[in-house]
Amino acid sequence: MPEGEARYEDLEIPLAEPVHGLESVKGTLGIPEWWPTGSRVSVVFAQASAAEDPLLVALQHALTERKYLTLRFPFPYMQAGKKRPDGMRVLQRTFQSAVTMLSRDPTAAPAHVFVGGKNIGALAAAHAATARMRIEGLFFLGFPLHKQDSTEELRAERLYRVINPMLFVQGSKDRHCDLPSLRQALGRVGAPVQLHVVDEADHALKVAKKSGRSPEEVHAEILATLEAWILKTLGDPL
User: What is the Cα–Cα distance from 182 to 145, expressed in whole angstroms?
Assistant: First the structure.
């Protein structure tokens, strides 16, 4: 998709019910030039923490400039400054509210929606996808398959219920996702799946300086992988 100028707006995403005294969470909407013309594809990112993640910011900006409508948002506990994550019901409903906001104006609603997230945002995306959310596919940036260094209990059951295409982007040194265990789990998934491993990257998809790679190079690799998968899922040849 060609690049063009884009603008960004803060967006209040209403919650189904108050959480931590909040009635909404603040997301960032990326609006590409000339939206809603063209393919009208949207990409939604769920954050892994309250702080702005350089990877998610880079992906949002790059995709918005490439004509995708983008939305990046935190979960209630993050905005409230809490360390303990919200229950999955709250995470799932927040995700659904974020996706619903994209269609608040029917004349500018996206025709195709891809959702995903990083760490807990990835896990929440998997749960939200099985709750009658109309999407084209899911992407997981550092899916937390298990607790750190412990593969005894895997968080894979929800993946078996997803019917949409899925992209997993995992670091080769991710201590929260043993790659052999993930590959075995994905072998049982009925939906189309693709796994991309970022060499030398950890759970946050960061690489050590000694790797010789800059954060920008890693971001570019993930961006290329994500956009290629989106286009393939839509049937749009590169």
Answer: 7
User: Do the domain assignments include residue 1?
Assistant: no
Helix (H) or strand (E) holding 163: none
Cα separation, 98 vs 102, whole angstroms: 7
Question: Using an 8 Å Cβ cutoff, are 170 and 119 in contact?
Answer: no
**Over the stretch 67-83, which tens digit does the pLDDT of each residue have?**
999 999 999 999 999 99
Distance of CA 215 to the CA centre of its chain: 18
Closest CA to 189 of 172, 205, 222, 167: 167
Task: Give per-residue pLDDT as tens, 121-174.
Answer: 999 999 999 988 899 999 999 999 999 999 999 999 999 999 999 999 999 999
Q: Can you say how many angstroms the Cα of residue 156 is from the centroid of all Cα atoms in its chain? A: 17
pLDDT reported for residue 107: 87
Helix, strand, or coil (residue 150)? coil
CB count within 10 Å of CB 204 equals 18
Here the CATH number for the domain that contains residue 134 is 3.40.50.1820
| Residue 148 structural domain | 6-234
Rounded CA-CA distance 19/124 in Å is 16
Q: What is the pLDDT of residue 93?
A: 96
Domain count, the chain: 1
